[in-house]
Amino acid sequence: MGDLTPIPQSLPDGRYEGGNGTYFVELRIDVGDSQVVSGDVFLAGAAPRRPVASVRTEPGLAVTQPHGAWRAVWQSSDRVVVPGDLAVEAVPGRGAAAVVRLRPDRGLNGLPAGNEVIVLVQWVAAEFRRLGVETETEMDVLWPQPLQWEGLRITVRECLRLAGLEASGVGQPGMLPRNLPGWEWNESNVFDLQRDLQRLHDVMDGSAQAALAVPSWEVHLLMLTRATKPGLFGVMFDVIDLLPRQGLAVFVQEIRDRTPVDEEDRRIIHTTVHELGHALNLAHRFERVLGRADSMSFMNYDSEYRGGGREDDYWRQFAYRFDPDEVAFIRHGPLSSVMPGTAPFHSVNYWGSTPGARPEFVPAEPTPGFRLALEPPDAGTLFDFGQPVYLQVSLTNNGTRGVILPPDALDIKAGLLEVLVERYSGVGVTRVSEAQPFVPMLQRCLDLRSSPSVLQPGIPQTENISLSFGAGGFTMADPGRYRLTPLLTIADPDDPGRSATLVIRGESLTIQVAYPKTRRDEMNAMELFRPDVGAWFALGGSNALSQARELLTEMGEARRKDARDTTDPIASVIARSLGIYASRPYVRYRDGEYVRHPAEVGRAADLLGGLAKDDTAMRCFDPATAEATRKLAKEQRAKAKRWVRRARPRRR
Fold it and tell me: What contacts 239, CB < 8 A, 6 or more positions away?
């Protein structure tokens, strides 16, 4: 099959819609740019319609006419893929109207095998898809001013339009109060606020009983001042069943503080569109699996461009656009892969079939000159069933000269560090092709330009990482052995290839998740493997996850009593999470007002202090987590003492 002979009737590029009483079809004709024709099939009825499947012309096939018949690839809403056909025929005398004929080769999610779905569609817009961006802006946060570039008025909305998206709601003023002393925009608070505003949105839409995580072309954007973490420009949450690729935040004042005045607006627009790209399942271009540090897309960092040190070159050539494979995915990717709330972040390889795509690279053995290692708890590599997996990652320079590292290089949420997870039978070398990368439920976008560190020979840099709950749910939920392999990708201006990166492979660590010993262990695990509980541990507590907090409080007390003279690892991990939670103030949206919940300093000091004094309990944590816990316990004890002194009445 291929393009048919041209006919006089013209079909412009854009989005077409129509139905036949059984199915509703959204067709996209994109001859002038991506050279793809695609569509989404829904059951007919009032919006929101139930998606059935998506279809697009075969990858690698360039569509040069808006009408024709082509072989196509189908993907159902549950991500089953089958081949099939797609045909478009203009309707003379009906303006920009067409008859679309769709046929999967095999039955697919209710679509009959071999039978055509025939629908009359009408052109409705030049943009290929619609995206609602509900925005809340903190008081005193200034939105970026429009920029002039090659005759275009560059705004966030315009950048999305250039990608083929009809965006609504972008830049509308919000109602967030000023970030006053005592408030903190830590990631747990941002998550809580996203959940509160989502509930408000559901109530206003009359859908209060609906699940908060229903897939839709809607995201919630918070424009805030600064986060508690220095250098954090933006975050995107992907929490299964709670906030899957639907909540994001940009820390505008942090960007302004770290950017020359005449470049502030440009970087704020870049960061905002970058975070929206993550919500559409786009990954960083500099990551190992893509190997495109030479990219000038929104999804690259200027600091990583061609190995670093070429920021001016990046901005000189930056055209306020995504790369072609990203544009094709945004416009024509299957609904079940690109739409917020569908496939987990980083689970879709949209770049692999692009002409000239670079195969992902993994060194065959640990990289000489470095030691990248995962360190287990002092108690060993055996984890109780349901016990969250915390490890220390360390990087040592075994060379003779210092190596420059970007800030937070070992932060697994920043995109430079990966951990490959493989079920391990006890024999053979690591099978990278069968291993799955752990993807955190939170993506951090950081300022990697400032405050680089020098990794001196023989002096390790360490960080703690949590590997239990990520974007795809629980990584190691089954008993058995797992082999974990760390990979670190850093900029390398001396790399002769276009990737301009150095991939450091570390030593593999094998851990074992124990089988449940008692019925209580099995019952507890059913609760520990709930998404809200997984998110609780990943965030270090959350005021919005009150059911998880109550459950863990009760579970921790029961397990400590049952343990008697021994230390229960799960009870220790629960106590640590409750202590971290109590150490933070929280901001919630309730009954039309923002309410501050102060930190429970005394409770935090008791929980963390008691844990830090128990050497046996601390052996349940890796060295980095144990050290951070002791440090936080000391800080909370000092705060509690100051609070007691201030509260004590003065003698006259």
Answer: 191, 441, 471, 531, 535
Same domain, 98 and 138: no
118-149 pLDDT, tens per residue?
999 999 999 999 999 999 898 889 999 999 99
Q: Within a domain: residue 95? A: yes
Do 146 and 96 share a domain, yes or no? no
> Is the pLDDT reported for residue 307 higher than 90?
no
In a domain, 180, yes or no: yes
Number of domains in the chain: 4
Domain holding 444, by residue range, is 370-513
Q: What is the mean pLDDT of residues 22-49?
A: 95
Residues in contact with 397: Cβ distance below 8 Å, sequence separation at least 6, in sequence order: 369, 370, 403, 455, 456, 457, 458, 459
Angle at 579 between CA 575 and CA 580, to 5 degrees: 120
In angstroms, the Cα distances linking 75 to 38, 174, 335, 336 are 11, 38, 9, 8
> What's the pLDDT score for residue 144?
95
Q: Does 391 share its domain with 329?
A: no
Place of tokens 């081949």: 83
Does residue 511 contact residue 376 with C-beta atoms inside 8 Å? Answer: yes
Taking the alpha carbons of 351, 353, 357, 363 in that order, is the dihedral positive or negative?
positive
Q: How many CB atoms lie within 10 A of CB 371?
A: 16
The 10s digit of each residue's pLDDT in 465-507 is 999 999 989 999 999 999 999 999 998 766 655 567 889 999 9
Query: Do both 287 and 141 map to the same domain?
Result: yes
Structure tokens at 68: 């024709």
Assess whether 215 and 230 both reside in one domain: yes
Task: Pick the closest to residue 43 from 51, 35, 31 (CA basis).
Answer: 51
Q: Is the dihedral of CA 257, 262, 263, 269 positive or negative?
A: positive
The distance in angstroms from the start CA to the end CA of the chain is 96
pLDDT interval class at 183 (50, 70, 90): low
CATH code at position 458: 2.60.40.2970
CA-nearest of 182, 179, 176 to 196 is 176
Q: Residues 112-122: pLDDT tens digits? A: 887 899 999 99
Signed CA dihedral, 121, 122, 127, 130: sign only: negative
Neighbour-count burial of 605, counting CB atoms closer than 10 A to its CB (0-12 exposed, 13-18 middle, 19+ buried): buried
How far apart, in whole angstroms, are the C-alpha atoms of residue 217 and residue 197?
Answer: 17
- Is position 314 within any domain? yes
Question: What's the one-letter identity of residue 200?
Answer: L
**HSE value, Cβ hemisphere, 13 Å, CA-based, for 248:** 30
pLDDT tens for each residue of 418-439: 999 999 877 666 677 678 999 9
Judged by DSSP in three states, 167 sits in: strand
pTM: 0.93
Indicate if the pLDDT at residue 360 is higher than 90. Answer: no
Residue 648 has pLDDT above 80, yes or no: no
pLDDT at 212 over 50: no
In a domain? residue 558: yes
Distance CA 262, CA 266 (A): 8
Amino acid of residue 632: L
Cα 288 from Cα 304, distance rounded (Å)? 12
